[in-house]
Amino acid sequence: MIASPDRTPLSREFFDRPVLEVAPDLLGRILVRTTPDGPIALRLTEVEAYDGQNDPGSHAYRGRTPRNDVMFGPPGHVYVYFTYGMWFCMNLVCGPEDRASAVLLRAGEVIEGAELARTRRLSARNDKELAKGPARLATALGVDRALNGTDACTAEDTPLRVLTGAPVPGDQVRNGPRTGVAGDGGVHPWRYWVADDPTVSPYRAHVPRKRRS
């Protein structure tokens, strides 16, 4: 079980900051997903920052749409999108309201509810792979678009919360190019991860993929 100090939810103010401040500060924080089947908790070990209309790699680069509406605030809410016709990915919205920015949750260490996560990630060869990559993380936690817009900054018993956990010291944080981002957005070193953590996903440059029909 998670120690009681770690169960304090992160405040709205934590997320109401520039995305490049929030992203590395999310490492070591605890994400708790509550489902009818039981809770799953993981320690965040890898994230990516997306800076809205300043960032060609962001879903909000060209403005507000029904798909990305949650990215425009308020901060501390969950933005879930569907990609390649197969996978869900989860982000945490940050920055001031009406200025879209979000942090993609790329990987984590399952610290509670591994038995339940294994039933959702049957292809994982070991527990280090349960949430190793953004689609795997969402799958392990049972995340889909029904969670889009969920407030993660509440002490109430909600489907998803972000807790204080134990922030990672700066000398253990690494950063580099974002995985799979094409074009001008691919040059930003806005992926952050915990050094030498086995749950961090490998870096892959962008490779065009065909959508499933």
UniProtKB/TrEMBL annotation:
Keyword DNA damage attached: yes
Keyword DNA damage: yes
Protein's name in the database: Putative 3-methyladenine DNA glycosylase
Family: Belongs to the DNA glycosylase MPG family.
Molecular functions per Gene Ontology: hydrolase activity, acting on glycosyl bonds
Alphabetized UniProt keyword annotations: DNA damage, DNA repair, Glycosidase, Hydrolase
E.C. no: 3.2.2.-
The organism's place on the tree of life at top rank: Bacteria
CDD domains per the UniProt record, alphabetical: AAG (cd00540)
Cleavable signal peptide: none
Enzyme category, top tier: hydrolase
HAMAP family membership: 3MGH
Organism from which the protein derives: Streptomyces violaceorubidus
UniProt cross-references to PANTHER family, sorted A to Z: DNA-3-METHYLADENINE GLYCOSYLASE
